[in-house]
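2 proteins. here.
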Amino acid sequence: MRALVVADEVDERLWAGIGPGCDVGLVLAAGDLPFDYLEYLTDALGGVPCVFVPGNHDPDLSGFTRHGGLFLRAGFPQAWPGPAGGINADGRVVDVCGLRIAGLGGSVRYNDGPNQWTQAQQARRARRLVRQAARRRRRDGRGVDVLLTHAPPRGVGDREDPPHRGFDCLHPTVERMRPDWLLHGHIHPYGEHPREHRMGETRVRNVVGKHLIEFTAHEVRT
């Protein structure tokens, strides 16, 4: 599976440089991109699925459910502000294109904006995600292939200023899930090429901008 992985920065070259012949079967988005940009990417690639998590500059997408083709919030119909056709993986484990993807959006709380969490709040969300992944694994024997986050783990490619500190809880999350990849955004490289990190056997990559990544789905994880 070849995926286009994007976050935080719109790459103007993609507006004219992609199409159905690009051999990309999936778009993964790690937050803080215009939703119409994500819609354009999926349409230009022939309608491939788009799995995303929200960043701290994205609108609040919590509380939405879908019933009978309508989006509901607090029991009332409401237009969903997310990308049309996009799969919001925040706090969820989803199976798409043969990959099992666990998502955890948002950044460390630094003001009153949406999609921001204290370390304790994100830790609770991460524990729920780990339990969800474990239930799925008990059911079919498959582990998580990709952990898609907006912010990085604390001390693994993050920064020291408060808005760009990583989450401590991602360390035990990776230890328990053992995904092949942790893909995150949020940390702008400003022209530099950030190095890839390792957490055990998990490859950790900052995907701000655009990346093309080949994934191998594991039918059985031990």
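next one coming up
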Amino acid sequence: MKLDSKYFDAIRVKGKRSAEPPRAPECAWEGCDQAGIYKAPMGRDHEGQYLNFCVDHVRQYNKSYNYFSGLNDKDIQRHLKDSLTGDRPTWTMGHNGTAGDAARAATAARTRRWNGRARDPFGLFGAEAAAARKTAARRPKLRSLEVKALETLDLERDATGEAIRGRYKNLVKQLHPDANGGDRSTEDKLREVIQAYKLLKQSGFC
């Protein structure tokens, strides 16, 4: 085609429109018109939902943020216990949650008949020895993971279930950011404590 052709002059190429850059949401802090490019969780019962703040207000929000605000110690412990199973319901072994009252009553009766203790009609073994054997038989054998979990909780290898639960409760209260004025430097240690307690609970130590 010749450059001075009338057909050449009639050709028009449609240019590409440049896409507008996405606009950042406005800061959710009342009275602030800065760009809210930092996300912060909305809080309990609003999991997965976030507020957008500017850098100054997200820092201020995080300092005063308390996930357990409004809950007493009993509710906090219930929440931590439910979180071990992902907030999913659990049932007693042998039940699927749909068994009738008759089946549950029969299981309870069998449990009452068998309490796990060997009969000793002549008292040959003694009460203290029998109690020690019962405790040893009920406690599972320690593996390296359980030993490490007990060390994380700063407990001895022969720690009882009650001691493990008490130590866990105290550590959670000490290491949670809400107990340290919003300081999150202990979050890693808190996560290790929760995982150690979860492992010991699943292994039957508490």
